[in-house]
Amino acid sequence: MRRSMKLAALLTAGVLSLTACGSDDDGESTNEGNGGDAPQSDVKVGMAYDVGGRGDQSFNDSAAAGLDKAVEEFGVDSQESEAEDGEAETAREERLRTFADAGYNPIIAVGFAYAASVGKVSEEYPDVNFAIIDDSSLADSSNVASLVFAEHEGSFLVGAAAALKTEADHIGFVGGVETPLIQKFEAGYVAGAEAVNPDIKVDVTYLTQVPDFSGFADPAKGKTAATGMFDNGADIVYHAAGGSGGGVFEAAAEAEGWAIGVDSDQYNTADPSVQDVILTSMLKNIDVAVYDYITGVVEGETPTGVTTYDLSVDGVGYSTSGGFVDDIAEQLDEYKQQIVDGELEVPEAP
Amino acid sequence: MTPRLTRIALGVSAPILALLAAFAITSLVLIIAGDPVGDVWNTILTWPETRNQSNIIDNGTVLYLSGLAVAVGFKMNLFNIGVDGQYRVAGFAAAVVAGEAWLPGYLNTVLAIMAAMAVGALWAGIAGVLRATRGVSEVIATIMLNAIATSLVAYLLRKVAVREEGSNIIATKEIPEGSRIPNISIGEGATAEIYGFVFIAVLAGVAYWFLLNKTRFGFDLRATGQSTTAAVASGISVNKMIVTAMLISGAAAGLVGLPIIFGDSFSYGSTFQSGLGFAGIAVALLGRNHPFGIAMGALLFAFLDEQSNRLQILVGVAPDIVAITQGVIVITVVISYELVRRYGVRLEQRRVAQALVGAGAEPQRPLDGSQQPPTDGPSDQNEETKA
Amino acid sequence: MSTPAPARAGTAEIAVRLRGIGKRFPGVIANDDINIDVRRGTIHAIVGENGAGKSTLMKILYGVQPPDSGTIEINGEQVALSSPADAIKHGVGMVFQHFMLADNLTVLENVVLGAEKLHGIGGAARDEIRRLSDAYGLDIEPDELVEDLGVGQRQRVEILKVLYRGARVIILDEPTAVLVPQEVDELFGNLRGLKSEGFSIIFISHKLDEVLAVADEITVIRRGTTVSTVQPTDVTSRQLAELMVGSELPSPSTEASTVTDEVLISVQDLTLTNADGRRLLTDISFDIHRGEVLGIAGVEGNGQEELVESLMGMRHGARGTIRLRGDDLTSMSTRDRRQAGVGYIPADRHRHGLLLESPLWENRVLGHQFRAPSVKHGMIDKTAARADTERIITEYDVRTPGPDVLAASLSGGNQQKLIVGREMSSEPILLIASHPTRGVDVGAQAAIWDHIKRARREGLAVLLISADLEELIGLSDRIEVILRGRLVGTFDPGAVTPEQLGSAMTGAEAQA
How many domains does chain A have? Predict the structure, then answer.
């Protein structure tokens, strides 16, 4: 236990120093950005993160990156707040209300856990604009924008890449927490792999079950799960497990196998010691979605309704850093085209 | 000062002492972290608005039930760390029963509440039976049962869940309108409403007090908690008490999630609040297992939780400071109560001794003229009484 | 015990001199003007009743508690002992009645624990332990696990611990209470060996025959003060006992017999085996009649506790039958036995008799949760319980400001009187009194004796277990001696002497 904690701390520290984007620095630059000839804007953005908040090396960080870009470009004011593990529904609601009362507009809720609270609070504050990521159940609200992704499509491509690259015809998938959202990753990945090789063997495991969301933040669990798959004969493991992915990379490095990253281009963000095992990453461009949304608000055309970020708009995709998939890029792009054209239907549930 | 007044004064001084100490320690943490101490306290100590008050009461209700469940075990020196698993299994069961609506209207509600208490009791009872028959520590057993509860509920939830279009949350069927427990308005607007379940929580508190202090069962339970050996000698079947206490604790734990299910979410979903059982341990410690004390502890914790968002958004301080404050309060309360308790026992021993010496404590049946006052001192301090 | 009379102490140097030692606890004087000289190379016994202040005195000498007044001189030098470490530094070591050994460690580890600086924790320490063991005939193997050792061996480990730390004065607190007779003899052999090597032994006991057998000098403590120092050859056991309790030995002696031929309790072939298969009780059979007190005599640890707990149903697994006036108690729970009419005065009132941190009235309810006045319809009847507690306080002379004080704030004697009053109030058929006057003052002792006599007069059957032979002889109508879990002999208290009982208790008679 202690060792794994240390490991996690070390890993975190390493990644932090590498990316050199400590959360505090960014927070301050936000305020400084208002002075001098930096662009100015009256828009005040409230960011309500999911558990983990800025600095989670994953999902929340990706959203934060979009916010940072918007702050830099438009000089919008921003404030952030993160969810606590096991907090009450009222705490989420109250977070949104506190933002609204303090004059923040728009308010971006990062994560599907906010669905109910955004639904409730957006009715209480009809003049405030809300955005929610990974949820489209509020499609009909006049002041809510739903930003959703076709994770299954992106996962299809990395699944195909894995099937093309595997020498054992045996690959794996490590999901963080077994939720419908992560199952979408699994479904696409398996479909992609089977499109290449119908007989391929795909091991699937999830680190934790709801309401235990620690599967998104436990590298030790990720490592154990992935090591098991490598020992079992798999040679490529894809993770959709947020912060636990670090462990998957370590396991791949130790087993001299491959790993596939998720959400952002993890070749660039992971610890350098495991960089070379990251075959590719499934890109889920939350930063693009957040940035686009804020751009819309700043330009006065507040978006509402559902915006789906799929392959056709490069809302999802795969990364090529490291050049490990260059040799199969042609085949992957072919699959991509088929999906965009609607010739290939990717399942959303396993 | 009369003994009664002394006791009250001691009882009140402990929490005040603890809160002052917690205030000082937290301030120190803030200073070291370089956060604005004044702003933080200003924000934390702001009198909450109506909607925040209703949130505090709502969350306090939930924490209160959890605290009661833990306290039943504590009274008997049983550490039911498994309230967390018990309330989730029970809450899930209640949501399923209520969602299926086999009975109409409030009959459905009553059935669901009974189901929750039964399931919670059953889940805790497993640990009780293991402890009574096999000597398995209830701490270990309930921790394991928590893990099993998590997986079991996740598994069953996937079986029965319905998923709203476009949402990534899966949840049980919604409870029909007629079986919901209406909220009570304490101000204007929809946000100023509190759970109707608050009355059931108060009732549970009264029942707890009555059970422990007025009934033979409660006496047996407290006696067992104070001294297992004396309880055995007095004819209490300790094993039976362990199982019964766990059943009651589990039944109370079964109520924990219900205010939310019947007053707010109307279903049990994948984002259902977790960790309430562990919060209940802190609340029970804070309240010294007294029904009124637990209520105070629950409200205090809910109050601090409520300020967490304001701290982040208005002051820019990490919400962890709230968790730190809560932790520090629990520690200081535990320490200060123990200190005050020991002081109280010593005070009383001295008082008794003085009262007797003052009253001229010559033995009633002198054996000879040279008899002197007793030489065998306050019981647990000297002499061979332990021989 | 056929040991030769100890050599008379000569004019050896004084190893320990106590002058005017006083110690008060709130409202109570535990020690007052204690004066003792312990000569080097002698065994000095300190005797006194339970509660006379012996343990307080030893705690003072071992630095556990500071005295309020008086001086301690060790080898002619006045010292202030503020901690056991101080005491050890001045060569004073103590062997407690309850051993302080870690079972899962070896002898070596136990001995060096806390004294690592002396000879390290390895070979040097092992050599030193062997040397001490050989030199004083302790027969200790340093690498054995303590959990594998018998009681006598453990005690020798404790002695070795003290020697290892360089003590020249060794205090032994009631060392024989836990030993069987053979072990007592071995211990005395060891002590004589140490004495001849120039060690000074302070031997605390209330067992007069042992004291007379082993001590060179005897100091008697009564009600916290030293009353006399005598030579064992100059006194008899009876004289010593009189010194202990005052000029007039309070006689527990019973009035005319009230024994009837109605059997109230009948125990047949009670046998108890522990988890390891060792026999704790073997074929115990006895009857107690209406109005009869049956005394059980025995060296502590010979099955008395097991017998009482088996009768109470607190200990499971006993075979045999127990009948209480026609009711078969054998398979009843403790509560049902109490309901059937068994009153119980436990040997350890803190562990088994009281809720120390509860008020007296709740302690009145304890053990009587199923009957009035404590309980009505499953509810605790506080008013009635308090009122009845007030009655007990008056009738049994419990010194307390009221029924609402915590049990812990009463003195031992008053706690015991409360328990006696409580157990009598349920009008039991059988009263089990286990060491009823242990650790109580003389006044309370006399009162408790009176209550037991009254119980007998009122037609109860009383089972009295005691280590105090005077008490047994005085109160009992019949005495059974228990030895290694068996009843080995029946005596008529009117005809038996403490000496005869003593030899039966140690098995001397059986061997003869």
Answer: 2
The rounded distance, in Å, linking the Cα atoms of B269 and A112 is 12
Length of chain C: 512
Residue with tokens 């020991």: B342
Cβ <8 Å between A148 and B58: no
**Alpha carbons B197 and B255: distance in angstroms, whole number:** 10
| Per-residue pLDDT band at C508 (split at 50, 70, 90) | low
Domains recognised in chain C with CATH numbers:
14-245 (3.40.50.300), 250-341+428-439+452-512 (3.40.50.300), 348-427 (no CATH)
> Which of C362, C309, C352 is closest to B230 using CA atoms?
C352
Split into its structural domains, chain B has a count of 2
State phi, psi for B317 to the nearest 5 degrees.
-100, 140
Do B and A touch (≥3 CB pairs < 8 Å)?
yes
**Shared domain check, A119 and A18:** yes
Residues of A in contact with B168 (CB under 8 A): 112, 115, 134-135, 179-181
Q: With an 8 Å Cβ cutoff, is A185 touching chain B?
A: no
Q: Do C441 and B374 touch (CB under 8 A)?
A: yes
Residue C176 pLDDT level (bands cut at 50, 70, 90)? confident
Q: Do C366 and B355 touch (CB under 8 A)?
A: no
Task: Using an 8 Å CB-CB cutoff, list chain C residues near B350.
Answer: 26-27
Token code pair at residue B327: 């932790």
Complex-level ipTM: 0.81
Cβ-defined contact of B367 to C250 (cutoff 8 Å): yes
Provide the pLDDT for residue C512: 38
Q: Distances in Å between the alpha carbon of A144 and those of A115, A140, B258, C142, C329?
A: 11, 8, 30, 79, 77
Please name the residues in contact with A299: beta carbons below 8 A apart, sequence gap of 6 or more. Answer: none
Q: How far apart are CA A11 and CA A271, in angstroms?
A: 7
Which of B163-172, B222-231, C322-331: highest mean pLDDT? Answer: B222-231
Residue A24 has pLDDT above 60, yes or no: no
Quick one: angle between helices B105-134 and B83-100, nearest 10? 150
- The Cα–Cα gap between B237 and B234 comes to 9
Q: Where residue A160 falls among pLDDT bands split at 50, 70, 90?
A: very high
**pTM across the whole model:** 0.78
A6 three-class SS: helix
What does the pLDDT look like over C325-340, one tens digit per residue? 888 988 899 999 999 9
User: Given CB atoms, is C507 within the 8 Å cutoff of chain B?
Assistant: no
3-state secondary structure chain B: CCHHHHHHHHHHHHHHHHHHHHHHHHHHHHHHHCCCHHHHHHHHCCCCCHHHHHHHHHHHHHHHHHHHHHHHHHCCCCCCCCHHHHHHHHHHHHHHHHHHCCCCHHHHHHHHHHHHHHHHHHHHHHHHHHHHHHCCCHHHHHHHHHHHHHHHHHHHHHHHCEECCCCCCEECCCCCHHHCCCCEECCCCCCCEECCCHHHHHHHHHHHHHHHHHEHHHHHHHHHHHCHHHHHHCCCCHHHHHHHHHHHHHHHHHHCCHHHHHHHHCCCECCCCCCHHHHHHHHHHHCCCCHHHHHHHHHHHHHHHHHHHHHHHHHCCCCHHHHHHHHHHHHHHHHHHHHHHHHHHHHHHHHHHHHHHHCCCCCCCCCCCCCCCCCCCECCCCHHHHC
Are residues A205 and A336 both part of a single domain?
yes
Q: Find how far residue A256's CA is from the centre of its chain.
A: 26
Q: With contacts defined as CB-CB under 8 Å, which chain C residues touch B367? A: 246, 248, 250, 442-443, 446
CA separation, residue B96 to residues A64, B84, B122, B156 (Å): 38, 19, 17, 10
pLDDT for res B383: 35
Whether residues A52 and A18 fall in one domain = yes
Do B and C make contact via 3 or more CB pairs under 8 A? The reply is yes
